[in-house]
Amino acid sequence: MSEHDQHMAARRAMVEQQLRGRGIKDPRVLSAMERVPRHRFLPHPDDPGAYNDYPLPIGDGQTISQPYMVALMTEALRLNGDERVLEIGTGSGYQAAILAELSSEVYSVERFSTLAERASCVLAELGYHGATVLIGDGSLGYPEKAPYDRVIVTAACPKIADPWVEQLADGGILVAPLGDRWGQTLTRVTKRGDKLEHQNLGGCVFVPLVGEHGWDSD
Ligand code: SAH
Description:
The chain is an alpha/beta fold. It has a domain at about 55-205: 3-Layer(aba) Sandwich (Rossmann fold). The chain is about 30% helix and about 30% strand. A 7-stranded mixed sheet has the order 5-4-3-6-7-8-9. The chain has a two-stranded antiparallel ribbon with strand order 1-2. The longest helix has 17 residues, at about 5-20. The structure holds S-adenosyl-L-homocysteine. S-adenosyl-L-homocysteine (SAH) binds near residues 88, 137, 154 and 209.
């Protein structure tokens, strides 16, 4: 089997066992996860664990999220294809690629320039021109392109930062792991006028959000 076919087979197995098998149903999310070459977003693309059921280190003490968590968060965003999406915590860029498959514009903010530059290169090489990576403190959002139809935070946060709510369109959805450093609740927040509706989507563990509206250090 060629390397290309091996990766495709690994992605199919990942989708069947880790995603569909655990209740991910949105057909658009499942097919995006089957298409995006996750191995390309790893520091070593030949890592045999690229499609396995766990997060992996990507440098600077950060991780690429477990495939199931990427699928769960993406499904929770209920993307139709025409949204403008803000991601906080680019990391490897893998989640940004999945978002780019399913929406029209993605702005993703990362605090480490090394990670941001690598993610940006891989996204460009793979042709995800709708995804833009920015270096900065994502706890402040990215006001330049607001309002966003969706906001996804892929680092643990102590609370929903005010700038994210301000930059979210009315009727928009934000998904974030809310809690303390050691454990969080994946939370979906829907903005309705000046009210926020909260939904609990289950437990999770992410690396911390470090910045003005997050923690002071890793
Ligand atoms: N979505 C990523 C995984 C993210 S891991 C992927 O698909 O690979 C969380 C990321 O959030 C890390 O890269 C970390 O550096 C970043 N991060 C933490 N605090 C941040 C902040 N205030 N602004 C931007 N990025 C932040």
